Fold this sequence. Notes:
By secondary structure, this protein is of the alpha/beta class. The chain has two domains: 2-70 and 293-424, Rossmann fold, CATH 3.40.50.720; 74-290, FAD/NAD(P)-binding domain (3-Layer(bba) Sandwich). The chain is 33% helix and 20% strand. The strands form five sheets. It has a six-stranded parallel β-sheet with strand order 5-13-6-7-9-8. Strands 3-17-16-15 form a four-stranded mixed β-sheet. Bound molecules: NADP nicotinamide-adenine-dinucleotide phosphate. NADP nicotinamide-adenine-dinucleotide phosphate binds next to helix 5.
Amino acid sequence: xFERLPTPFGLVRAGVAPxxxxxxxxxxxxxxxxxxxxxxxxxxxxxxxxxHLDDLQQxxxxxxxxxxAQSDRSLGIxxxxxxxxxxxxxxxxxxxxxxxxxxxxxDLSGETAVVIGxxxxxxxxxxxxxxxxxxxxxxxxxxxxxxALKQSRINKVYLLGRRGPAQAAFTPAEIRELxxxxxxDVVVDTADATLDPLSQRLLDSADEKNAQKNVAIIREFAxxxxxxxxxxxxxxxxxSPGELFGDRAGHVRSMRIIKNEPYQDQSGSxxxxxxxxxxxxxxxxxxxxxGYRGVPLAGIPFDDRAGICPNKGxxxxxxxxxxxxxxxxxxxxxxxxxxxxxxxxxxxxxxxDAMVQDAVAGRHLEPAEASAESILALLAARxxxxxxxxxxxxxxxxxxxxxxxxxxxxxKFVSASDMLDMLER
Length: 425
Ligand code: NAP
């Protein structure tokens, strides 16, 4: 396994929220694979920089890309480039201590945050903005983020969905958790919680258990009376961002939102279209949470519209539609940024089944240098700072020790050079 960072576990480390430690225990299953004598981890090695496709093709019979979706989608509205307007994915990577984002700055000195989108990432971001610093201090949130959130003056968070409660992408457990924050009043307008006839009909006619639960939770939120808590989380539906406006210094301060109305498209899905009704909201920080996006890999076909490597059941295919021998994908670079951690189990199984079938049928690469040592010589020349699995175990041990000392699950290293310095000592 080759990994660009010195640490394994991708989004489990840098995406899953720090206050959702239970979800991170899935790393135990990965660790069991890593302990097999047939497995080697080469961290701090970047595909396209230290290692190229032909290097891999010369050394391996089969290659799987599981690089996820490292970028974000934008809204394409005026003012999106203003200071204080960010991709939520950057904010998530920052508070989770991803080394590429440790130096990012998020100005939390204003009072109002607007989070755009109704997926689980939007929920995570809204929750982290609302939680009390004392609660966050018991998690493995990055130290720089904890320090910034302790100083945060944000006391009002808007969560904006372009469609209604019955179409929201969040899952019931995640939306329910927002209603359990003890310092935050969740506010939903009764009109927003009342389903339009089209949503009601679609909800009644389909077996949509999650959507039914989501709607019931939103209705319960709408029935609540504000209790004068320190923070307010305002969830709005059928509202799209239209434009961001800045102050003289070029920092976002407000946002025009457009009220939408539902309609049914030709496929039968409920979509939203703009009405004439508009409104301006204060917005001292804007976090657009409208999805991740895959990034092309050198030498591998890429479908720019879908943001994935075109594939059939995990076999990467050329423009002709024919599988490219020995090249596979798994996870978000295969299917796009959807699903929860468990979704990757069946996704990976499908790819591995294809690999096994191809191996049995003799449809694989014919590497000229297939010895286990060959890659070591290459990496010694190209990346002397390669991190092994034993090195990662040492990093893990130190992070856990630092956590015990401060009553936290772990205290993360947020810089690759700090990790390498520690390993050399
Ligand atoms: P997501 O679930 O695809 O949600 C994206 C949201 O952005 C949707 O509400 C979508 O609305 C909205 N959106 C897209 N374009 C928009 C636009 N132009 N204007 C306004 N809204 C727009 O993506 P995500 O939240 O990034 O999550 C990615 C995956 O990770 C999901 O499968 C999620 O469940 C998973 N995840 C899970 C957890 C967890 O289990 N705790 C935590 C984090 C992430 P429409 O529906 O109208 O398109």
